[in-house]
From TrEMBL:
Lineage of producing organism: Eukaryota, Fungi, Fungi incertae sedis, Mucoromycota, Mucoromycotina
Cofactor(s) it depends on: Mn(2+); Mg(2+)
Keywords: Amino-acid biosynthesis, Lysine biosynthesis, Magnesium, Manganese, Metal-binding, Transferase
Designated name of the protein: homocitrate synthase
GO BP, sorted A to Z: lysine biosynthetic process via aminoadipic acid
Family matches, as Gene3D superfamilies: 1.10.238.260, Aldolase class I
Family: Belongs to the alpha-IPM synthase/homocitrate synthase family. Homocitrate synthase LYS20/LYS21 subfamily.
Organism: Mortierella isabellina (Filamentous fungus)
Length: 433
């Protein structure tokens, strides 16, 4: 077989420079898109605002502070809090978190209304996120205002906030069901008076990545300020939409821990990390403390009385579990064969499951080596066949059972009775650990 170039495999298949890192895709663009912010995005973490709208959520002040500190340890750029107009306790909580001295900037989310702005400013936050609905649905059935009123009110409120020296974002609500001319007109108006960011919100989760890319790209050509995006996950596109938005020139993405929020929630923090890690691993690793992700997810999961899903991005207990024999062999040779994320970069570990009917002898042999047992390849193959037979008849074996079987076989081999031992074991109950 002729030698392959680019550091892949030479004639003997043992190239010293064989790639060890995950190759994301051979279909990546050869040159970076000059509009893309995949390597320079910021996170607005909204667990303490959007996340409070989750069905099970009720965070007291102590829990909000614990979550805020945990997110700050990860290194998120902003923390977004529930409007101080929601309740008196919400106002007090805004003040308390704004006074913690965290590295993250503290924002609160308000309606496009002067009374809201005045109260929010008094809490000591670093910035205000202003929002008003612009779709025909919300204009008719929510606030009942036309676009002329919305534009005038936005300019009034934004100007007042800017005079107070705070950062300000203006977002339309239900952006993807709003008229494009209306959107671009109001974004252009607020950009002209110096808003820090404009926001696009897929409030009902109806958008797809292609629609997102086109809208953000169009908006990028109209405004000079930053662009923030907020994606709901009703149709399962939140993470993909966030990535597409950054490719098109967006600068900020809203997230929540475990994706909790109104209905099915929004872009999950861990899911965004997983996706962006494949876009620019070094940027994500160097900017954010990825090892802290599991801690904050456990805090939030306990607080809202849910379990972290088995298939959760990065931290789910199956995320780095390998079962099929062909997968296990490749993983043991080079984890990048079946892992695009490196578990150690997130403080996680991989697990090769071996006590089932799909197991392969290479995985069993690896366990033999971990246990420092003196068994040959043929021995490992023989034990593997017994594991498969037991699993077929009785279901998967635990790792302790597999270890017990290997040790029992090893002891019997020293006495020359190992073949009989395997033959006589007909159920896991006969394995003594």
């Amino acid at each position: 077989m002729p030698e392959q170039t680019n550091g892949h495999i030479n004639g003997n298949g043992n190239s010293a420079d064989r790639p060890r890192e995950p190759i994301v895709s051979p279909y990546q663009p050869k040159y970076a898109d000059p509009m893309s912010n995949v390597s320079s995005f910021k996170i607005i973490e909204s667990t303490l605002r959007e996340g409070e709208q989750f069905a099970n959520a009720f965070f007291d002040t102590e829990k909000k502070i614990e979550i805020a500190k945990a997110l700050d340890e990860i290194g998120v750029d902003y923390l977004e809090l529930t409007s101080p107009m929601a309740s008196e306790q919400s106002r007090q909580d805004c003040t308390a978190i704004a006074n913690l001295g965290l590295k993250a900037k503290i924002l609160t989310h308000i309606r496009c209304h002067m009374d809201d702005a005045k109260v929010a400013i008094s809490t000591g936050v670093d910035g205000l996120d202003v929002v008003i609905g612009t779709s025909s649905y919300l204009r008719e059935f929510s606030h009942g205002k036309d676009m002329d009123y919305i534009t005038a009110k936005a300019i009034e409120v934004i100007s007042f906030i800017k005079e107070s020296g705070l950062e300000v974002r203006f977002s339309t609500e239900d952006s993807f069901r709003s008229d494009l001319v209306d959107l671009l007109s109001i974004y252009k108006a607020v950009d002209k008076i110096g808003v820090n960011r404009v926001g696009i919100a897929d409030t009902v989760g109806c958008a797809n990545p292609r629609q997102v890319y086109e809208l953000v790209k169009t908006l990028r050509g109209v405004v000079s300020c930053d662009i923030e995006c907020h994606f709901h996950n009703d149709t399962g596109c939140a993470i993909a939409n966030a990535y597409a938005a950054l490719e098109a020139g967006a600068t900020h993405i809203d997230t929540s821990v475990l994706g909790i929020g109104e209905r099915n929630g929004i872009t999950p923090l861990g899911g965004l990390f997983a996706r962006m890690y494949t876009g620019d691993k070094e940027y994500v690793k160097n900017k954010y403390n990825l090892h802290k992700l599991r801690d904050v997810e456990n805090i939030v999961a306990e607080a809202v009385e849910v379990t972290v899903p088995f298939n959760n991005y990065i931290t789910g207990y199956c995320a780095f579990t390998h079962k099929a024999g062909i997968h296990a062999k490749a993983i043991l040779n080079n984890p990048s064969t079946y892992e695009i994320l490196k578990p150690e970069d997130f403080g996680m570990t991989r697990y090769v499951s071996i006590g089932h009917r799909l197991t392969g002898w290479n995985a069993v042999k690896n366990r033999v080596e971990q246990l420092n047992l003196d068994l040959t390849d043929e021995d490992a193959k023989a034990v593997t066949q017994k594991i498969k037979a037991l699993a077929d008849a009785h279901g998967a074996l635990s790792l302790d059972m597999v270890d017990g079987l290997l040790k029992k076989f090893h002891e019997a081999k020293e006495e020359g009775t190992h073949k009989e031992v395997l033959k006589n074991i007909e159920s896991p109950a006969q394995i003594t650990v």
